[in-house]
Design a protein that fits this description.
Number of domains: 2
Strand content: 15-25%
Distance between the termini: 27 Å
Shape: globular
Radius of gyration: 21 Å
Number of strands: 13
CATH superfamily of the largest domain: Glycogen Phosphorylase B
Oligomer: single chain
Helix content: 40-55%
CATH architecture of the largest domain: 3-Layer(aba) Sandwich
Number of helices: 19
Largest sheet: 7 strands, parallel
C-alpha cells in the first residue's frame, strides 16, 4: 500500500535538497506519495504542492509578524491535511515554521522525520528539547551536528551534505562564456543577492552600486545569479538603469564556478561558493528588531556557513550598517589587487569540500527514511 507523506520545504535550497531525496526514494520504488509545500524542483519529482515556496520566504521578525495571518492559515491547512491521514511528516530545514508543524504532528501521533537540522548549535540550545519531544528521525548534514546532538543524548543520522553531489558544474570557462555571450578577457564578478524577495531588494542595490564603482577601475563584468523562484520583474526593476549588468537565470552554480570573486547573501550560497573555492564578500542585513534579537541569541562568531564550517573568518562578512557599497568595494578590491590575499582565501576555502562528508547524501538520507518507515530504525525519542 502506498504511503502518504506530508513534506515541507519553505526555501529554495530546501526545495532542491528535498527533490534529490525524493528522486532517490522514487528510484528505490519506495511507493510513497508526497504532497505539501515546496518549489519547482520538488514538483518536478511528482510532489503535489499545496503552497509554493515563493509564498513562504519570510526573513526577519518584522516580516514574519506582517505575514502572521497567512502563516497561520498555511499551518491550519497543513494540520487539516494531517487529519485526513498521513503516514509521516517530512520536514526540510525551515525551522521556525517546521518546528511548529512537528508539534502538530506529534499531537496527532504522526511520525516526524527531519532532514537538514535547524542550526541549534548557532542559536538556542533550548530548542534541543523541542527536537527531543517532537522529532522521531533527525538526519543531519554536518558531522559536527551529529556530535552536538550526541552531547545532548540525542541520536542523529549523519548523511553528509547534498552540495557534494549537486555542485559538479563544467569547468570549461570558455564554454560557459560562449554559452552566455561573455567576453573572454574580463573577470566575472558574481552577484548572488539571495532567494527571498525582500532580501534581494535590500542587498542588490548595494551590490549594483559597488559593481558600478569597481567597473570604473577594473576590467570586470558583474553578473547577477537570479533565483529561479523569484519573478523576472523584480530584477528588471532593480537593474533598469544599469545596462552594463548581466543577468543569468537557472545557471547559478556554473556562474559561481566561473566567477573570479562574488558578493553573496549570507546563506547556502556562501557554502556553495566556498565549496567551489570562489572568494566571497558575505552580506547580511535584516530589520533592526531582528538583528537585536539575533545578537541576544546567536552563539557563533561568524554568520556565513562558509566561515562556520571552516571554524574561521576565511571570508569577510559585512553585517547591518557595514553592509554598504563602499565597504563592499573595499573588500572586493583586496581580491582584485592582492594576488597573495586572493590565493590565501582560495586555499582556506579548500577545506570546505572534505568537511561536507563526501558524496551520496540523498542516497544515505533515502536509506534512513526507508528503514525508518519500515520500522528498522527506532524513534530517537526512544
Amino acid at each position: 500500500m502506498k504511503k502518504r507523506i506530508l513534506i515541507i520545504a519553505g526555501e529554495a535550497s530546501g526545495d532542491h535538497h528535498a527533490a534529490d531525496l525524493i528522486a532517490e526514494l522514487n528510484a528505490r520504488q519506495a511507493n510513497i506519495e508526497f504532497f505539501g509545500i515546496g518549489g519547482d524542483a520538488m514538483e518536478a519529482q511528482g510532489v503535489t504542492l499545496s503552497y509554493h515556496i515563493s509564498k513562504m520566504a519570510f526573513l526577519g521578525v518584522a516580516e514574519i509578524v506582517k505575514h502572521l495571518p497567512f502563516i497561520r492559515r498555511v499551518k491550519k491547512d497543513m494540520e487539516s491535511a494531517m487529519d485526513r491521514g498521513v503516514d509521516a511528516v517530512l520536514l526540510v530545514d525551515y525551522p521556525g515554521f517546521n518546528l511548529m508543524l512537528a508539534e502538530s504532528a506529534r499531537k496527532r501521533n504522526i511520525p516526524v522525520i527531519y532532514y537538514i537540522s535547524p542550526q541549534l548549535w548557532a542559536w538556542r540550545e533550548g530548542r534541543v528539547e523541542k527536537i527531543r519531544k517532537r522529532v522521531d528521525l533527525m538526519m543531519v548534514i554536518f558531522e559536527f551536528e551529529q556530535k552536538f546532538y550526541a552531547r545532548h543524548g540525542i541520536r542523529a543520522e549523519f548523511v553528509g551534505h547534498p552540495l557534494a553531489d549537486q555542485l559538479n558544474p563544467e569547468k570549461d570557462d570558455i564554454a560557459f562564456r560562449k554559452g552566455h555571450g561573455l567576453a573572454t578577457d574580463k573577470k566575472i564578478i558574481g552577484l548572488f543577492p539571495g532567494s527571498r524577495e525582500n532580501e534581494v531588494k535590500r542587498l542588490l542595490p548595494e551590490m549594483l552600486e559597488a559593481a558600478t564603482q569597481l567597473q570604473a577601475e577594473y576590467d570586470i563584468v558583474p553578473i547577477i545569479g537570479q533565483a529561479g523562484n523569484l519573478p523576472d520583474s523584480l530584477y528588471r526593476d532593480l537593474i533598469a538603469n544599469r545596462p552594463e549588468v548581466r543577468l543569468i537565470k537557472g545557471d547559478s552554480h556554473r556562474l559561481m564556478q566561473h566567477s573570479y570573486a562574488a558578493m553573496a547573501a549570507s546563506g547556502t550560497a556562501t557554502l556553495e561558493l566556498g565549496f567551489l573555492q570562489t572568494p566571497i564578500v558575505v552580506l547580511y542585513t535584516v530589520s533592526p528588531l531582528t538583528y537585536w534579537l539575533g545578537r541576544m541569541l546567536i552563539k557563533v562568531d561568524a554568520i556565513s556557513l562558509a566561515n562556520i564550517v571552516l571554524g574561521q573568518k576565511a571570508v569577510p562578512e559585512l553585517i547591518q550598517k557595514d553592509m554598504n557599497s563602499a565597504s563592499i568595494v573595499l573588500e572586493m578590491k583586496k581580491y582584485l589587487t592582492d594576488p597573495d590575499y586572493y590565493e590565501s582565501v582560495v586555499e582556506k576555502l579548500s577545506g570546505i569540500r572534505p568537511a561536507l562528508g563526501g558524496s551520496g547524501a540523498a542516497e544515505k538520507a533515502a536509506s534512513s527514511v526507508q528503514r525508518f518507515l519500515n520500522g528498522e530504525i527506532s524513534s530517537l525519542r526512544g
